[in-house]
Amino acid sequence: MGLVIGLTGGIGSGKTTVANQFAAKGIEVIDADVIARNVVAVGSEGLAAIAARFGESALLPDGQLNRAWLRERVFSHPDDKRWLDDLLHPMIRTQMISACAQARSSYCLLVVPLLVENNLMALADRILVVDVDEQTQIARTLKRDGVSRQQVDAILAAQATRAQRLAVADDIINNDQPETELQHQIDALHQTYLTLAAQHHTGE
């Protein structure tokens, strides 16, 4: 398997912007959020198991997962949340590992928003953290998602702290700066990763 760079960062840090810039350089991006949606898509084992446990309430009229209902359910029933995590986390993990193994670019980027929270650091060879000031996170999330300040605070409280993320980082992108500066940081890291990928390849 090639070199895997785990990309993470808190809400509103700009992970997608960073991932897109690496993708523009021909680097394959594997997104945990996309995989998480796939494992509960119509026709999946994940969705069938959820429907078997919770019944019709868990499904929308068109057969898709009723995410809003399920979110409410697991929020108020810790046992159900545990069951759901035990079902989905191994599926998501397996698919992430498989996607990384199949990547054909010189290295790949594994984007996992909850990398630290779910203790998935071992899936990557290096951890890249997109870091921003908390005030920037709040401002960006309010503007992008149109949610209340209380909701943003609740999300931040549920996520790893900035210090916890930085503690596991091999590399850090400071995204409080202008876009040109962001580009410079990504260009430099891309060169570093190409060198590491070549070493990784010969060392296998």
From TrEMBL:
Cite the Pfam families for this sequence. Answer: CoaE
The molecular function terms of the Gene Ontology recorded here are: dephospho-CoA kinase activity
Q: Where do the annotations place ATP binding?
A: 12-17
| The EC number(s) this enzyme carries | 2.7.1.24
**Chief location of this protein?**
cytoplasm
Where is it located?
A: Cytoplasm
Could you list this entry's UniProt keywords, alphabetically sorted. ATP-binding, Coenzyme A biosynthesis, Cytoplasm, Kinase, Nucleotide-binding, Transferase
Q: In which pathway does it act?
A: Cofactor biosynthesis; coenzyme A biosynthesis; CoA from (R)-pantothenate: step 5/5
Q: What does this protein do?
A: Catalyzes the phosphorylation of the 3'-hydroxyl group of dephosphocoenzyme A to form coenzyme A.
Q: Which family does it belong to?
A: Belongs to the CoaE family.
Q: Identify this protein by name.
A: Dephospho-CoA kinase
Q: Which organism is it from?
A: Salinivibrio proteolyticus
Q: Which gene encodes it?
A: coaE
